[in-house]
Amino acid sequence: MRTFGKWLGRILLVLIITAAALYVWKREEITRLMAVNTLFSEDKIVTNFSNMNAAFLTRDVPRGDGPVSDLPQGETAPLPASTADWVEDRSVTALVVLKDGQLVHESYYKGTTPEDRRISWSVAKSYLSALFGVIMAEGHFDSLDDPVTKYAPSLKGGAYDGASIRDVLQMSSGVTFNEDYLDFHSDINRMGRVIALGGTMDGFAEGLSETFTAPGSQWQYVSIDTHVIGMVIRGATGRDVASLLSEKIIQPLGYEVSPYYITDGVDVAFVLGGLNIRTRDYARFGQMFLQNGAYNGQQVVPAEWVAESTVPSARTQPGELQYGYQWWMPKDARDGEFFGIGVYGQYIYINRPAGIVIAVNSADRQFKSGGVTTRNIAQFREIADSLQ
After folding, report:
1. Using N-to-C axis directions, what is the helix angle for 27-37 and 2-25, rounded to 10°?
2. Can you state the percent helix, strand and coil of the chain, rounding each to 5?
3. Rounded to an integer, what distance in angstroms lies between the CA atom of residue 2 and that of residue 242?
4. What is the pTM of this model?
5. Coil, helix or strand for 28?
6. How far is Cα 268 from Cα 262, in angstroms, rounded to an integer?
């Protein structure tokens, strides 16, 4: 019996030592996985959304050595009385309002500050769309109707074989992908665990094999489509997205501080939702789009691409929001009204006729409740109307 006890003790000791060694070896991956699993917890979400670089692999998107672009202070504007309740209900952490290019309102909540670089989530998709427009104007693509496999050949034989660039820009790839953030086993959450464990986003996209309809025949929001756009850009240019975005978008806008991307395990930017930027700098991006792609005396994004990407073109269903090339429009969109949107309440709202840009960051755990997006758009319109 004593012999058995000794052997059992030795076995347990070996298991403990092995587990400890495994933890040391994989400590960073385990830490990131734990961060993913608690990212949206009520007691952590606000801090997490302003400190994503504490939990994930990241890389800077350099702002360059140029001066910070002027964001002139306008006369402080009183916002509608409804704004205070909306800020509380939607767990807003930052609100920046520009009117005719001037800063007329700026406020921060829940202990956050103007210096926080806040996670964009899917607002990053609109940034990638802007970059795509620049790269296309430079002649790197022959046509939006080119197959994505022309520039990302590793996708041949998988779910994206047969999809065009236009299809993925419009979220009409037909690829089967579960986007439910509240389902632990969904594709979007599996993808999050790939990021946490140092896997590759390209490998994740290449591993998708199922489609639910023919490419181009039906709109369905599929976030991995945006990663494929990134693969196409990298394949066409031979460069990484972070350095391209820095050169073509961020530096010309004169950001206050360098943004950063969350990356996968091989330093590929998480282009579908991993940008982290100060809220004032989100507003600068919005102002550039309000000005038809021009900013600080420079045409940053071709005006033709701004016009084409920010009008309804995807085959969304009646009653839904409308979609262009990685930009959204209300179902009853006014001319020149569009927005980028990210889960948990991230927005860049542009109302060109009113001269209004509204940048919002939030930690809204009820973002999927019925009517929240419609309520947010109504609030933005109310703010814009109040400033006329």
Report:
1. 80
2. 40, 15, 45
3. 62
4. 0.92
5. helix
6. 9
